[in-house]
Amino acid sequence: MKERPVFARFYELLSRAEDRTIAPFRDEVVGDAGGRVLEIGAGNGLNFGRYRKASQVVAVEPQPQMLAKARPRARDAASRIVFVRATAEALPFADGAFDTVVASLVLCSVADPAAAASELRRVLASGGEVRFFEHVRALDPALARRQDLLNRPYGRFAGGCNMNRDTLLTLRRAGFTVRFRRLAFGPKMAPHVLGTARPG
Question: What φ, ψ does residue 19 adopt, rounded to 5°?
């Protein structure tokens, strides 16, 4: 996994500023996540204080610089936070280990989204759900083409993020039934969705 120390410093500033706008969406995705929860790409831990129902949160993050910023936030969380350095494509957990998986602005930047989606389904317990808040490929074909053109330079600037991923299709291909709504905020180049995905 490629380490991105410069981006980790930049992301801390960006995410705190951005959180003023997207806090309600983070609250919705994380607040009702119950039971034993896996959060992939936990980043700098901005979600930790929002867990209300989780008995435990296992926070997976591949970047050590992000983990260093996340640990202080875990101390103030109502739920117990356990840190694991790993990637979403190779989760070191048993099948069916989690009641809920949280994916918050992360599936855009995993190296292999299909493998990550498959892993999420594998570690999810029967009756469990993935709760997600992600930006996705635009529905407008002209806008989607612009996303394709800008994706590589944008990714260099944004820590490997891909603005043009069809994350909803990826989840469906992994065997999930997806329910979601599109969110009307931010630039048209970065449409966002919020929803749940359940196996079957």
Answer: -60, -25
